[in-house]
Amino acid sequence: MRSFLLLALSIIALNAADVALNTLTKAEAKEGWRLLFDGKSLDQWRGYKKDTLPDGWKVEADGSFCRTGGGDLVTKEQFDSFELSIEWKISPGGNSGIFYRATEAHGAIYESAPEMQVLDNTKHGDGKNPKTSAGANYALIPPPKDVTKPAGEWNQARLLVDGQRVEHWLNGEKLLEYTLGSPEWVELVKGSKFAGWSDYGKALKGHLGLQDHGDLVWYRNVKIRTPADVAEAKKKAKK
Question: Which tens digit of pLDDT belongs to each residue from 119-171?
Fold first, then answer.
């Protein structure tokens, strides 16, 4: 999987002003990217532990989708290694999160899934603690600095999961790198609010999730690629 991570780091920087929302460029398609949201429907998503989409998640006229209530959202598909690119916009004082490798064995998604924090660092109380600020591996590993844009503006996040190695990127800057299951990771979990949850961060494959934390949040340009997607794209390019 190391080769997948190296390839992921070569991602082309996108200029939102030049690329239509919720579409793939020719270069992205050749690199194995695919959409998890097309700007029109949330057909690739459903509610956590539900068969249907919660009523509180709505597609907006501007090509984003918004949480107004209804519970956490998860992808229908499950992923092990992947690269996710996603844009988020939070309301003033708002809180949300991007989960990965979520199982549905527990009552709440955060009992199994690690999280990349989505937050208004300025007006939400969690912004005062680096470990719970935007871009953090929530409640475990803080980002070295605040690179967020103000509430109401779009932030571009990338989440790379390559086997057990994970990277958090925000607005073009690499914030974190850690290894799930490593001695360092295990010690961090033992000293955290997750210590009592035996399955936390242990799944090798699971759903992506977007958190309903009771606040308005918007997402768009949700794109993903896996090692299989990259291999298939290479195969097509040779034909």
Answer: 999 999 999 999 999 999 999 999 999 999 999 999 999 999 999 999 999 99
Residue ranges of the domains in the chain?
Answer: 2-238
- Token pair listed for 138: 């929530």
The closest alpha carbon to 223, from 27, 5, 32, belongs to: 32
Q: In the structure encoding, which two tokens stand for residue 110, read together?
A: 């955060």
3-class SS of residue 138:
coil
H-only helix segments in 9-132: 26-30
The phi, psi pair for 61, rounded to 5°, reads -65, -25
Fold of 2-238: Jelly Rolls (2.60.120)
- What kind and span of H or E run contains 151? none
Residue 211 tokens, joined = 């958190």
- Provide the terminal-to-terminal Cα distance of the chain, rounded to the nearest Å: 25
Element of type H or E holding 164: none
3-state secondary structure of 227: helix
